[in-house]
Amino acid sequence: MLRIVIAEDAVLLRAGLAELLALGGHRVVAAVGDARALVAAVDAERPDIVVTDVRMPPDHTDEGLRAALTLRERHPGLPVLVLSQYVATPYATGLLAAAGAQPAGLGYLLKDRVGDVADFLDALRRVAAGETVIDPEVVRVLLRARSADRPLARLTPREREVLALMAEGLNNQAIAGRLCITEASVVKHCGNIFTKLDLDPTEGNRRVLAVLAHLRAE
């Protein structure tokens, strides 16, 4: 059971998230509607994970994101799962850029993903366990945005597929299952990717963040 703080200004969605998480066996220790209340709730409750919308009052821009960054500075190791209504790559990359040096779990999902209860609860569990989980659609947008730039253009189509799954947080075994290839083939593809992109082949969150750091580089 995870102790969770929710921040979402839409009352019905906030209530729905709380009910969904309770049905999943977790405990929502606070459910708030703005960024200031989020920071106060985390300071008071010290939850296992935070689930927050990007946009909240008063300006409905990036208050939730900025609160998440503040909380990660104030409480090192705090896992945060950020929800967004649509693909907003500046928000995703801003969160990743600020959190790259921290090993704590980090997630960025579209709100549509909440509709798939099993996937959402799995993402929550993975973030709470310290993994990085990025919405597949966000990864696709990042890849498309960088597809014409070097050295990303050096990758083969299969290497691009492996890179996209790596950026979603999948390990080699999971990538092999998704692509119906052997794990040895995945290891070979990963080695090629790291070589072509000049990345350090480090396992875990740092590997994912390194890949995303390259994809968002100017």
Automatic annotation (TrEMBL):
Residue numbers carrying 4-aspartylphosphate:
D53
Concerning Pfam families, the annotation shows: GerE, Response_reg
Residue ranges constituting the Response regulatory domain according to the UniProt record: 3-126
Any single biological process term in GO: regulation of DNA-templated transcription
Gene3D superfamilies recorded for this chain?
3.40.50.2300
Q: Which UniProt keywords apply?
A: DNA-binding, Phosphoprotein, Transcription, Transcription regulation
InterPro entries in alphabetical order: CheY-like_superfamily, NreC/VraR/RcsB-like_REC, Sig_transdc_resp-reg_receiver, Tscrpt_reg_LuxR_C, WalR-like
Which chain regions cross the lipid bilayer?
A: none
PANTHER family per record:
TRANSCRIPTIONAL REGULATORY PROTEIN NARL-RELATED, TWO-COMPONENT RESPONSE REGULATOR
The protein in question is named LuxR family transcriptional regulator
